[in-house]
Design goal:
It is built from 15 helices and 17 strands. It is an alpha+beta fold and 443 residues long. The chain has 2 domains: 80 residues, Roll (Ubiquitin-like (UB roll)); 331 residues, Glutamine synthetase/guanido kinase, catalytic domain (Creatine Kinase, Chain A, domain 2). Strands 1, 2, 3, 4, 5, 6 and 7 form a 7-stranded mixed sheet that branches. It starts with a helix and ends with a helix.
Length: 443
């Protein structure tokens, strides 16, 4: 049954709605709308100038309207008079094809039409820094191996507890919080869900975490590699496919009784094998979406960190329950994609997983050889698997060459994304850094 946002406001004491969308770069944009005006907005949408955000538009484009999806509405636990709601971008009565949530909605519907309902969970790692973003907020968080550090997590208990309390209140099913492998880094896990719902929650989680951190005098960042020499922020995705959406789901399409073959032995069905095959087939192009910034490749291609491991892949390989590979199959009926990082757009992350997986199923893609070695110690021995892109430009070129993935994501989206991201790369490439002066001034 459709939710009437005006009625929702009266029942929950809402004074304002944040009608929100993400642009191509994952920037979160919103209009703050009084509850008295939400009835019109629910029908017509809130107006935006697309050119003023990171979308491929000009100042001459008509108004872009973000039409709230009432199913996504969330009352802000830390400011009860405000509710957040995801918007679907529309222009002149047509969905904006390059808008990330629309890209995902299209692919969710496409998968559903083929009997596949993708469910995912994400592990959104973040750092708590000083307000200027220059250093870790906790001066005592200096251990060489800080992962699961009991004292360090308790020194930031007030922040972690508040965020987790809010997830409990929202019914997300959070089940564990920890200090991660880098000094100043944390991770909070909640239940998996339908891909679009997970994307909405992921987007809101970023907003909530930053808001709570600011309230406590800190700065939360999901930047892939904010501190040199430390482990970066991953955003691992756990992927399964079911026979129906939501609570109606009963059969995990990826699950199978153990049989013959490297995937069946791990409990992945033929469909699961081919979905994984699609991920492997498109991995290098996938990186342009899952690892979308210049800084992303400081995480993927990082030297060994202070803790002794980067926990990030650099080669297109898959395995069983082994965290040194790009994909691991930790148990029957699902697999974990360890490639994405904290900069990934929540909606495009889910969309590109579905796009690659669907292509794999349709083409019966084989994931290739299973490798069970420690990639950090023996990865140099692998000769039958490609390396992941070395930088954003390489990833964008790989994406541009991958016609089937571009088509699955939508040609209009792909053209806009490549255009905007290449502009970003050119801006970076023309920037003069201190490194250049330090190393080439006297040459």
């Amino acid at each position: 049954m459709a939710i009437d946002l005006a009625k929702y406001a009266k029942e929950n004491g809402i004074k304002y709605f944040m009608i929100s969308f993400t642009d191509l770069f994952g920037g979160q944009r919103a209009k703050l709308v009084p509850a008295q005006a939400i009835a019109d907005m629910q029908e017509d949408g809130a107006g935006f100038a697309g050119f003023a955000t990171w979308l491929d538009m000009t100042p001459a484009h008509p108004d872009m309207l973000a039409v709230p999806d009432p199913v996504s509405v969330i009352q802000l636990p830390w400011k009860k008079e405000v509710a957040w709601v995801a918007g679907n971008c529309v222009m002149e009565d047509e969905d904006v094809a390059q808008a990330p949530r629309n890209v995902l909605r299209k692919l969710v519907a496409e998968a559903a039409s083929e009997g596949m309902h993708v469910k995912t969970g994400v592990e959104a790692e973040y750092f708590l820094l000083t307000p200027d973003g220059n250093q870790i907020s906790d001066p005592f968080d200096t251990a060489e191996k800080p992962c699961y550090d009991q004292q360090a997590v308790m020194r930031r208990y007030d922040v972690v507890r508040e965020i987790c309390d809010y997830m409990l209140e929202l019914g997300w099913g959070p089940y564990q919080n920890d200090h991660e492998d880098a000094n100043g880094q944390f991770e909070m896990n909640w239940d998996f869900d339908d891909a679009l719902i997970t994307a909405d929650k992921h987007s809101f989680f970023k907003f909530m975490t930053k808001s709570v951190a600011e309230k406590h005098g800190f700065r939360a960042t999901f930047m892939p590699k904010p501190i040199e020499g430390l482990t970066g922020n991953g955003c691992h995705a756990h992927i399964s496919v079911w026979d129906a959406p939501g609570d109606k789901a009963k059969i995990n399409v990826f699950a199978t009784e153990k049989g013959e073959g490297p995937t069946a032995e791990l409990g992945l069905s033929e469909k699961g094998k081919h979905f994984l095959g699609g991920i492997m087939k498109h991995a290098s192009a996938l990186a342009a979406i899952t690892n979308p910034t210049v800084n992303s490749y400081k995480r993927i291609n990082a030297p060994r960190t202070m803790s002794g491991a980067t926990w990030a892949p650099n080669t297109v390989t898959w395995t069983g329950n082994n965290r040194t590979h790009m994909v691991r199959v930790p148990g029957p009926g699902r697999f974990e994609l360890r490639l994405p990082d904290g900069a990934a757009n929540p909606y495009l992350l889910q969309a590109v997983i579905i796009a690659a997986g669907l292509d794999g199923v349709r083409t019966k893609a084989d994931p290739g050889k299973r490798h069970d070695i420690d990639m950090y110690a023996e990865g140099h021995t692998i000769t039958d698997a490609p390396r992941l892109p070395l930088n954003l430009l390489d990833a964008l070129r790989d994406y541009d060459k991958d016609e089937s993935l571009k088509s699955a994501m939508g040609q209009e989206f792909s053209a806009a994304y490549l255009k905007m991201k290449l502009q970003e790369w050119n801006s970076y490439a023309s920037h003069f850094s201190q490194w250049e002066k330090d190393n080439t001034l006297d040459i």
